[in-house]
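Thread: adenosine-5'-triphosphate complex, take 2
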Amino acid sequence: MDSKGIIHYLLPYIKKYWAAYFLVFLLLASGVGLDLVFAMFLKTTTDAAVNGDLQKVQLMLLSGIVLMICGFIINYFTKVINAKNVDRIKKEIKIDLFNHFLRLPLSYVDRNRSGDIIARLNNDVNGMSGILGNDIFNLFRHPLAAAVTFVYLSTINWVLAILCLFLGPLAVVTGYFFGKVIRKNSKKQQEAVADIQSTINDSIFGFSLLRSFQLEQHFSKKYTATIDNAYHYEVKGAKWSAAFNATSSTIGSATSMISLGLGALFVVKGSMTVGELIAFVSLLSNLTTPFTGLSAVWTNIQKAMAAGERALEIKSEQVHPVFIQGRRVIENFTSMISFQDINFSYNDVETLKGINLEINIGETVAIVGPSGSGKSTLVKLLLGMYSPHNGKIMIDNEVVHHFQSDFRPLFSYVPQESLLFSDSAKNNIKYGNLISSDDEILTAAKLSYSDQFIQLLEDGYDTKLGERGTSLSGGQRQKIALARAFLKDVPILILDEATSSLDYVSELQIRQSVQELMVGKTTIIIAHRVETIKNADKIVVMNEGTIVDQGTHEHLISNNLFYQQFYETMVTGQT
Ligand SMILES: Nc1ncnc2c1ncn2[C@@H]1O[C@H](COP(=O)(O)OP(=O)(O)OP(=O)(O)O)[C@@H](O)[C@H]1O
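Output below.
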């Protein structure tokens, strides 16, 4: 997303919280006013002291206390209101981006590393603070302070005031140059941070794999390389920032020295009082900071823009068509699913070629074939996760991937790898149907044979599972996944049968549970067990992205050599 896009995205937030912005602006303007009053205070007090007016000095010291209290109040509330406002907007942006992310097509997650997505959704939004608060205000505050101060200083000594203004534009040019370089470097630095997060993520999720394949050294090297890369950009960024700060402060010091020197001359000549010189020097920063400060603001804005570009790139991704408003929700399946001349490829390699398949209501269809033959892809196309490049997938009389309707309520999908969310055992089942009652959850747990082992967990149904919770065995996870499916009472069941070897009792229980789940449903099973295959109404044999044959077990075993050989290997593999 470019700068225009970022501003366009942020405007509604700024409009929504205009009152907070206005209040901070008023407080900042009061702060500028207070600076002037403080300069006047210094001038009057010093001149009174030089003139030996003790009474005036005492009076001024009292008013100094009032000034300090006012300064404290203005400072405190400016910072608090600004910080609260920025944090609130960042919170809302994070929620908006996450909600958008949840609606993206599966291909987005395929294309991007998890660490990168996490970095965009969190770190990069945090990096946007500059354009949501402080830097925006400073963009107004600095010129306002400069204008007001210039008018006041001109009344003290206009020659000196104009001279001090000369060095300003130099600082602006410097800031513009440094800002551009710093923005570019900042983007690279944020990308490097995302690389670090990806590597950590891979190490956490693949920890047991990493340990068993002795990959510690490899990951250590990979991590060191990503850290080195981030360090490179951090150092580069620090050097540019240091060069910028040094240049800015040199310009600031030069301005101070020139004005002090000239001011001292005016005092010696008698055209300026000592108090006026002190007031002048105390306000000088207000005159020069707009230039040096604006450059700093500019570089900060560049950094925040770089973070915004990365974070809001998620927003430029098109959501999956099923989330476009006004889709009809389909809850009834009345006759048939048909795949007509389907072709599909993930990248350039064709994964599915010329698929034609019909599944009638109430049928149990087993999809079999060697690994990588396209079984899961076929199912993912039916679930609308990807769209075919050619051909049509129809449910009853409507094309699924035209997305005029949302077909998801028709399906229950039990994947091969049953995922546990970091939540209680009860809620893990409830993900199958969020509006189910405790009784329904218990029934589903009993039907899936989950109840027995859940009761034995430390806190029963309230035991935390998943990440940083209790771990379950492969079979227990499958039972939880089946319990979810029992809760979602749908007409079409899609099962990716687990290949992991289960103990005999678990295997029997899961088979029994699946049988019960299938009652009254149209079922598509990516089958790996001989019993499942033999009992199916129709077996679809896949190889290298094509359907090589389909029919009953009896038909295929006597007519299709490929199936015969495949079946043989399955039988020998399971004995
Ligand atoms: N998200 C993806 N991006 C790119 N290629 C993919 C993706 N998913 C699968 N593939 C490729 O598509 C081909 C078919 O994969 P698919 O998972 O459909 O096969 P499968 O028959 O279900 O295999 P298995 O029995 O091992 O699960 C494989 O070559 C695989 O590498």
